[in-house]
What we know:
Layout: H1 5-18, E1 27-30, H2 40-55, E2 59-64, H3 74-87, E3 96-97, H4 102-115, E4 118-121, H5 125-138, H6 153-161, E5 167-170, E6 176-181, E7 185-190, E8 198-200, H7 208-218, E9 223-227, H8 234-243, E10 250-254, E11 257-258, H9 274-279, H10 284-292, H11 307-313, E12 324-325, H12 328-341, H13 344-358, H14 363-367, H15 370-381, H16 387-398, H17 406-412, H18 416-431, H19 438-452, H20 457-468, H21 476-483, H22 485-500
Parallel strand pairs: 1-2, 2-3, 9-10, 11-12
Antiparallel strand pairs: 4-5, 5-8, 6-7
The protein binds one RNA strand through helix 5, strand 5, strand 7, strand 8 and helix 7.
Amino acid sequence: MHMSSVESSAAASASPASASPAVVRPRVRFAPSxxxxxxxxxxxxxxFNWLYARKYDGDFLLRIEDTDRQRSTDDSTRAIxxxxxxxxxxxxxxxxxxxxxxxxxxxxxxxLLATGAAYRDFTPAMEIERLRAEAExxxxxxxxxxxxxxxxxxxxxxxxxxxxxYAIRFRVPDGTTEWPDLVHGRIAFPxxxxxxxxxxxxxxxxxYNMAVVSDDIAMRITLVMRGDDHxxxxxxxxxxxxxxxAAVPQFAHVPMIHGTDGKKLSKRHGATAVGxxxxxxxxxxxxxxxxxxxxxxxxxxxEVMSLPELIRRFDTDGLHKKAAVFDTKKLEWMxxxxxxxxxxxxxxxxxxxxIERAGTGVAADLLARPAWFHGxxxxxxxxxxxxxxxxxxxxxxxxxxxxxxxxxxxKQWRDAAATAELLQATHDCxxxxxxxxxxxxxxxxxxxxxxxxxxxxxxxxxxxxxxVGGTVSxxxxxxxxxxxxxxxxxxLDAAVRFLQG
RNA sequence: GGCGGUAUCGUCUAGGGGACUAGGACACAGCCCUCUCAAGGCUGGAACACGGGUUCGAAUCCCGUUACCGCUACCA
Length: 501
């Protein structure tokens, strides 16, 4: 089973195309470790795989790599499911839990041992640790020395009989291991730089690379698309595929996502869990769109895309090599764009519960008046970037009365007596209107301003404070329309009383 | 240290020998619109890491340097 360099490299580079002359449905997977929440980097890797599967009518599989019992938790597994569900990244077939497959990993490792592709290493782990520490102290790179483990058959039998523990190491052949990476092109590693790595620990548990390859073969994965931090694992894995006599899949190593300081994105950069963004009122479609553009581009200037469009345009050729910095400003802008594209009834279904949670309205009541509610949403979404922005601005349309903000009062109601008189006049003018429409109100109020020899703004601004409590709002006539006649007049009354007393 | 990867405006990117006085987007600044705030429109500042080649010609190809990132475990 030892391969020459020619054989090994040829096998690695030839397999993707030649292994299957017939058209096979692509099978890709997302394989996170359940050691935290769903990270945006993981979400993006999942997205690329998902887009690929959906575009080429393949299967997108989910595998939870829970073999590290120390760090894996059920909460994390749930968080991954939740994150994927929120984003709408649905997987095909049942979830694979890696921990359930250790028997096969174990068997595969022993198969390698039987063929001579791997060998027993009775060296105590402590001893190796010592040698490594020594080498590092000297400033040398440590590499496991195969000769150290070389035993005669008799010696092996004796140790086996004595019940001495051993790890199984893969016998790395001479030559070069290379593959045509879908994003980087040809990548090659001289095998001499790869040490005989452990595939099965002395306690019988499989090591990562063994488990991954065993599972990817069992799941019939045709393309492994993952973060480029796995590039140096790839030659080891290819060697394993070959030794196991399995077809080597294609590989695509996508770049990492960095924080604004250029370092790998971590908690100190702020929110890195997709759940954080869900909580902040982001739309999953916007998140997906933004994530897709970090590490991939269409080739033209298209930026805002719906999910179907993303599927249609996705292509591994558009994948980048360079790490991208996660820019929350652009994410927010992207969300604003998607807010505008979301059908109003969908948006209503999202905003109504959020309003109820904020305590400024009852979801069912809002949804019972779709024409009015959609109108309000139309007004607010153009000046919002998140769902939370909409909720925040919605309160003047929902409550009976509003609180007058001190800064607004200082700014727009400087002269109390004069303002009270003006607001009373405004009130009377509006109250006399036969119908409550923006056009009639605008006509009447502009006429009032002209009669008083002042600009429209001199009326609109104080009126705005009376209606919404602050100095910022949608156009004043739309506000009047959607706040409604009764409440608008009541607020004007309240403002006049406030200024007089 | 060794191995591998990457390198265009502050950020995301287009670009794959001449169409580049390097295009778009976010952010920023100014102007327009205007009842405020947004949205929208217009304008502006802002980049090919450095050094060698190859070529009539290089952001684009090659080599080197530098910087950054990743891996370097009986972690995943």
